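Weekly sync, protein design subgroup
Attendees: M.S., D.O., the rotation student, P.L. (late)

Item 1: inverse folding check
M.S. brought a backbone from last month's batch and wanted to see whether the design step gives back something sensible before we order anything. D.O. pointed out we never logged the input encoding, so this time it goes straight into the notes. Structure tokens as presented (317 positions):
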């Protein structure tokens, strides 16, 4: 489908047109009026997909694990969408790692939709594009969405936290206890996976994770299980998928799933408001009012806070 009309693209995507689905996500990534229209059109159609975030240090085997989880979903007959979050290219802002190459096994499967997205690293970038892209996949009728992130920085933790179930992947012998604490992963992890569990140090890694969990006083009723996998061979992946299903059952039966989604919507609304205010502020700082206030500021006729208030007033903020 070659049209750029969001309504036509949404209609086509709902009917199973994967090309239309890809164009919708491109609109979401670019932002602006078209992205907002896509959001308005897809929001009433969403609320059904279950999202799983997969995060962990680079080299932990997340893409191979994601590849195996796709196979698990497909073996049950369900379709699945995958958002592979890559670092941004410093030249184009596009995704540069190409996770789609690493999960090529499913490239020709019409029941699998895979898309790389760039982190971009600025307000209004991925923080807004990711939930919108998930919503597009949800509106298109995909019952599962996997969101794989490239690392364990704050941005990646936030992205993983946008999922219903967040899986944190670690490896034996990486000092995982320290790294997990530093990255705040205990706060977002619903399940821990020790991947490459055929390597030495797996018992120590499992002990360290369990010790951290024992010391976590804010865990609530759900204690994140620690699952061992060898994604390269597929060993333990069926157990991981069962653990994800058990976490989903817990969320649904306890009412926590609804509360989590409500919190995410609240945060998304906040991000949208902040992004719109930032846009208005940028517009205000590009006009004659800014030049006049800057001159007054340099002449010490006005203080920075008063100048900022006047700019916000001029921007309608």
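Designed sequence read out in the meeting:
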């Amino acid at each position: 489908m070659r049209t750029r009309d969001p309504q036509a693209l949404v209609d086509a995507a709902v009917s199973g047109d994967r090309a239309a689905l890809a164009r919708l996500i491109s609109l979401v990534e670019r932002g602006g009026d078209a992205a907002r229209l896509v959001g308005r059109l897809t929001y009433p159609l969403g609320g059904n997909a279950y999202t799983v975030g997969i995060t962990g240090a680079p080299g932990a085997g997340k893409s191979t694990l994601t590849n195996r989880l796709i196979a698990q979903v497909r073996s049950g007959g369900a379709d699945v969408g995958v958002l592979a979050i890559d670092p941004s290219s410093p030249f184009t802002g596009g995704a540069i790692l190409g996770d789609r190459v690493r999960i090529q096994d499913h490239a020709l499967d019409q029941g699998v939709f895979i898309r790389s997205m760039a982190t971009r690293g600025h307000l209004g970038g991925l923080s807004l594009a990711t939930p919108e892209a998930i919503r597009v996949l949800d509106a298109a009728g995909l019952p599962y969405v996997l969101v794989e992130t490239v690392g364990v920085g704050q941005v990646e933790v936030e992205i993983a936290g946008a999922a219903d179930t967040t899986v944190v992947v670690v490896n034996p012998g990486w000092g995982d206890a320290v790294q997990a604490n530093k990255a705040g992963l205990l706060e977002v992890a619903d399940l821990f996976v020790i991947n490459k569990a055929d390597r030495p140090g797996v018992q120590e890694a499992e002990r360290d994770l369990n010790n951290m969990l024992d010391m976590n006083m804010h865990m609530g009723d759900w204690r994140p299980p620690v699952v061992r996998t060898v994604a390269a061979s597929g060993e333990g992946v069926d157990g991981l998928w069962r653990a994800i299903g058990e976490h989903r059952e817990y969320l649904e039966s306890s009412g926590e799933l609804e509360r989590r989604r409500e919190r995410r919507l609240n945060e998304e609304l906040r991000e949208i408001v902040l992004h719109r205010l930032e846009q208005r502020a940028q517009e205000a700082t590009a006009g004659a009012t800014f030049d006049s206030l800057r001159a007054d500021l340099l002449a010490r006729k006005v203080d920075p806070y008063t100048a900022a208030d006047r700019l916000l007033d001029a921007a309608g903020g």
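Discussion: The chain has three domains: 1-45, 48-253, 270-314. Residues 270-314 form one domain.
Action: P.L. to compare against the previous round before Friday.
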